[in-house]
Amino acid sequence: MSKYKAYPEYMDSGIEWLGSIPDHWKTFSGKRMFKSVRIPAEKGDEQLAASQRYGVIPQSLMMQLNDSKVMLALKGTDSFRHVAENDFVISLRSFEGGIEHSQYTGCVSPAYTVLKNSKPISYGYYRYLFKCMPFIAALQSSTDSLRDGKSINYEQFSAIDLPLTSLCEQNTIAAFLDFETAKIDKLIEKQKQLIELLKEKRMAVISHAVTKGLNPDVPMKDSGVDWLGQVPEHWIVRRLKHTASLQSGIPKGKDLTGKKSISVPMLRVANVQDGYLDLEDVHNIDIEPSQLGRYLLRNGDVLMNEGGDNDQLGRGAVWMAPINNCIHQNHVFSIRPKNIESEWLDMLTRAAYAKFYFYRVAKQSTNLASISSTNIKETPLLIPPVEERKEILKFIKLQLERLKATEELSIDQITLLRERRTALISAAVTGKIDVRDWVAPDTQEVEELQETTA
Questions:
Q1: Which string of b and e fits 354-393 if b means at least 16 CB within 10 Å?
Q2: Both 194 and 341 in a single domain?
Q3: Is the pLDDT of residue 39 over 90?
Q4: What is the DSSP code (8-state) at residue 433?
Q5: Looking at the structure, do residues 235 and 346 belong to the same domain, yes or no?
Q6: Residue 201: its pLDDT value, please?
Q7: What is the pLDDT of residues 123-140, one digit of tens each?
Q8: What integer pLDDT is reported at residue 366 of this predicted model?
Q9: Which Gene3D superfamilies does the protein's record reference (predicted)?
Q10: DSSP letter (8 states) at residue 46
């Protein structure tokens, strides 16, 4: 924030979350600034939904943005409350403030609290204020129930003191934040796009290396697989069932307990990610010791999820036995390779040609797809000589490490940008920086600045 100047004079607000404020600012309780209104829904009011990300928007739009269905109340809407444009709504079970601004007219469930300003305000300014971290912390400290996911009520909100300055100054602060946060958001989006490109590059590196090899001049032959095309002439093409065995896991809900049951860790779909294992939350299950061997994971097993989104079919990683006596559920296959490296089999199943095969043979449902063990066993594998496999794996590892390092830099950049965004909002709405003289720069200058920053 060093690039921004402070106000000439400050005074102690006497409010813990607000601290010192410009000496011409005032403070009022939330009760004096906003009143709770309970106007019955009007005929033709569209049902609205409150969200942390989008504010208060029509439920139909929420469905489109989230690509999901939202239950509309077909009857019983007589008790719904009318929401006017620029009202604020206290949403339910919020952990991030939960005071949402509405740009729409409509109605909400009576479980929501509708707030209407009692004094002339800039709606944009208070939209930012209610999302700044100091205010959220003050709201959270007003009740322990908020941390348990319970509703914020009007009494808790109204007891918190809020800052108030001239309408002109509020509008300037809101315009400044609109401009600056849009700049930051654009830079964040560019980093996200870069991360997606890196993921595509990672797939391309793996796919080319395990299907074409490292020597561009090697003689090629028809693989015999229509979607795979040509492969190096000296490579073997073989079905997975001739190179590995497949172990199914414990069927969900099956009782394998007895008098001598022991508790063992069990991998679920959530633990098996694309290229790595997430072992932070591994559940335990009781099982008879005699049943343990049937589902036990062994070092070097290649794990693969049975299903998921189409672009995640075949998602898996190599099990290196970081947990003793670990078993797996039936939605996670354990593939045990013979005469080839686990890492080679893992790379083959992560390649684009294998993903395409899984997609072709998967059983499709509304949003998900699943692969049967029979189809996995029929996956065509490409097997170069052992020394060539080692060279290719070494090459892939080096390339993936470089891509990962670049991705981590982008992730760090996103974190820093988000922190800057949060700090900037808090500083502006609480009067820690003076932006009264701010004027939006020329559009061309802004684009040049963004390119330089990116």
A1: bbebbeebbeeeeeebbbeeebbbebbbbbbeeebbebbb
A2: no
A3: yes
A4: S
A5: yes
A6: 97
A7: 999 999 999 999 998 988
A8: 65
A9: Bipartite methylase S protein (1.10.287.1120), DNA methylase specificity domains (3.90.220.20)
A10: P
Say whether both 270 and 321 belong to one domain.
yes
Token pair in block for residue 321: 């036995």
Residue 183 Cα to chain centre, angstroms: 21
In contact, 211 and 351? CB cutoff 8 Å:
yes
What's the pLDDT score for residue 95?
Answer: 54
The pTM of the full predicted model, rounded to 2 decimals, is 0.82
Whether residues 266 and 282 share a domain: the answer is yes
Structural domain harbouring 262: 215-383
Residue 415 burial (CB count, 10 A): 12
In a domain, 24, yes or no: no
Closest Cα partner for 433 from 121, 176, 132, 133? 176
Domain boundary among 325, 356, 383: 383
Q: Is 280 exposed, middle or buried (0-12, 13-18, 19+ CB in 10 A)?
A: exposed
Cβ neighbours for 27, distance < 8 A, ≥ 6 positions apart: 13, 14, 15, 18, 21, 161, 162, 163, 164
Q: Are residues 56 and 179 in the same domain?
A: no
Rounded to whole angstroms, the Cα distance separating 70 from 335 reads: 39
Report which residue type is found at 28.
F
Which residues, 6+ apart, have CB-to-CB distance to 115 below 8 Å? 34, 35, 36, 37, 87, 88, 89, 90, 99, 154, 157
CB-based contact 345:244 (threshold 8 Å): yes
Greater pLDDT, 301 or 261? 301
Percent of the chain that is helix, strand, coil (3-state, to 5): 40, 20, 40
Whether residues 323 and 348 share a domain: the answer is yes
* Beta strands per DSSP E along 359-416: 363-364, 369-370, 380-383
What does the mean pLDDT of the chain come to?
Answer: 89
Residues pairing with 317 in the sheet:
303
* Distance in Å from the first CA to the final CA of the chain: 19
For residue 130, which of 104, 108, 152, 145 has the smallest C-alpha distance? 152
